[in-house]
Protein 1
Amino acid sequence: MSRIVYVNGEYLPEEEGKISIFDRGFLMADGVYEVTSVLGGKLIDFEGHAARLARSLAELDMAQPISHEELLAAHRELVARNDIDEGLVYLQITRGSAGDRDFVFPDPETTPGTVVMFTQSKPGLADNPAAKTGLSVISIPDQRWARRDIKTVQLLYPSMAKMAALAAGAGDAWFVEDGVVTEGTSNNAYIVKDGKIITRELSTDILHGITRAAVLRYAAEAQMEVVERNFTIEEAQSADEAFVTSATTFVMPVTEIDGAKLGDGTPGPVARRLRELYIEESLKSAI
Ligand code: PDD
């Protein structure tokens, strides 16, 4: 069934959603994106995603071509028109098309940004069977650019890392730089040791996950101890538990790292509890 997508203010059948071959998102990966999950037909943490989008645009000196109100209205309109109960809304904003290829940024006054949005229906997002078995990950060198805090569409290396993980029979990869874990291909990484939740501190080295912020807040409210510091693959392999967070996986237990099983190889109690807490609490504030 054809989806209704959003392209620069218009709602169109997906076959009719088109942008220029000169769009800088296509030619130069000059674009940013957000992925907002939908549960029960409602947006999870929309305000967090909108705030990070504004920050990504500002860091790249890119104009915000759509107001906050329009952005929210379009998200809701797409969810309604595509009848999404569980799934996500993908949003991408690029620096637009100046009608040619040039390394120089075009003047935003004459070249408006391109705004594209579409939905993906994912029934079973909350009741994901993978959360019951857990994920195996492999480690891989982090060869991405140095501004990973900006959510750009330069996803070739993460995509290659995901392929390497699948080829190795694993589910995902964790990036390692200077001997310590940065994050997953499309998620933030955590370990649990003696009841403490350990995750890398925020910096330009990792994406400031919206799910991460919410999970750490709920964990603190539930009197769970959170420590923001680096950890190595070896430390992770001897941890009691590990997990990842993202808008598409929520809290997903990790049960194997580079072939070493964690504990008894099944999802641990902290990850399971955090997943429940996250879904329960997020639903309360979904809009
Ligand atoms: N990825 N780190 C990276 C590199 C990511 O790409 C993502 C999200 C996260 C988690 O961020 P959040 O909790 O805000 O989703 C961390 C999205 C889901 C994607 O690319 O599909």
Protein 2
Amino acid sequence: MFKNNSKFYITTPIYYANAEPHIGSAYTTVAADCLARFNRLIGKEVFFLTGTDEHGIKIEAKAKEFNKKPQEFVDEIAAKFQFAWDELNISYNNFIRTTNPKHIKTVQAALVKMRSKGDIYKGEYKGLYCRGCEQFKNEKDLVDGLCPDHKVAPEFTSEESYIFRASRYAKIILEKIKKDELKIRPQERRNEIISFYEKEGLIDVSFSRKKVKWGIALPWDESHTTYVWADAFLNYLTGLGWQGPEDKMPYFWPPTLQLMSKDILRVHATIWPAMLLSLDLPLPKELFIHGFFLVDGQKMSKSLGNVILPFDLIKRYGVDASRYLLMGAAVFGRDGDVSWKKLDEKYNAYLANGLGNLVARSTALTQKMLKQNLNLNKDAELKESFLEAWTFYINSLENLKIDVAISIINQQISILDNYIAKHKPWELVKIADEKVGKIMYNVLESLRHLSFMVWPFMPETTNKILHILGLDCQKECSLNFNKLKEWGRLNENTKINKEGPLFPRIEEK
Ligand code: MSP
């Protein structure tokens, strides 16, 4: 029931609804979208889940700061996330909000089940709590007494609480991580978690708060609300409609890939799998931890005034280029540093002068050729180069090497530029040499291949290139993947359509 190699269930973290999305959350979401689209392209059935995390003390306090009721406040922020993701052309299958009544039901049913297994007991929690992380901390986690992520001293909390017996599952989780049944990548992150288990083990976790009102009430004791992380993790079940009328769990569970950054790896590798084991559900196949983004070498923050919003990117570069620039900004899995200067340079080098210029030149040359009554003539000079590129490209994306896939696209663009430079079709056109038909066929057929390679990153660009090549996008995109990447599908009597420049050059800042 739970075996699904041809299915791909991918999740992003659900982002806190305390501020609008920035390029950090956009990075994870665009990456998830590219991987979702790639897997759709190669014929897998994909379910892509994202959403917002809307309960807890941090959000309650933020709403108060704006003089708003928490629900009113999170409604506004969730709408901003949805709007930003729609603008960025994110093809999610579900956008989950933790204040949705369906999710509240999931949380309550899951906690009741965990309690019935003897995994939730009444106790007392005494310790340090960081509101920024919404996590309990021990002294060892702090640097000079401060939370290293939020640079504030955690507050001391002591209260009656219902506790989750996570410790019960420590051994089995560690075993699964070591056997790669729960894969954690990159390797250094896996090592870090294994060493955490070996040195510190897994202790029971406080799962309810008496003092926090903005949360989901425990069904058996309404004076407590659910700990926000317990609530948040269960979104991955609600997102598939767990136990509801259209439950997709039997079909898609477990997640093939859960993306996040290092800030939330530890909770995902401890509390989350323990909850699943308590619920008798299989663990995710993989947690992939991408790097953290800095802007001009510094953490993004309102006070530094260096926060980059998705709309800032879209305004300057357009949707597709923004997606491409984000994905090319770092080695996937390593930290990255962005700056307007670097983004501008990359945009001009790879998109305006690269792909954009290649498409414009090829279109103009073919039109000149057709005017001279010279026809395209099927040829396969560049076939091998593209066959090989496809193999590397597929392999890179199957192994989550997003930046490598982008470099393969760039490499194919240079191969085409060099091919055109070598054969000088503009001279052949002038003297009406029929050889130009073969050369331009190679170029245009290569562009057809490139248009599909860029699809996960720049879907609108795919449509534009296919339109230029006189192909019906809907029809082409519904083709079986192996057909679509066969060499020679482009017709010799193709009519070339005009499009405006794909990526107009910009003045660098
Ligand atoms: N609500 C929790 C997650 C619950 S999932 C069950 C949370 N939210 S968050 O808004 O803080 O999102 C954290 C995630 O946002 C990171 O793990 C990462 O995916 C993304 N990023 C936020 N800022 C980022 C950067 N500056 N750089 C890269 N990714 C960033 O934690």
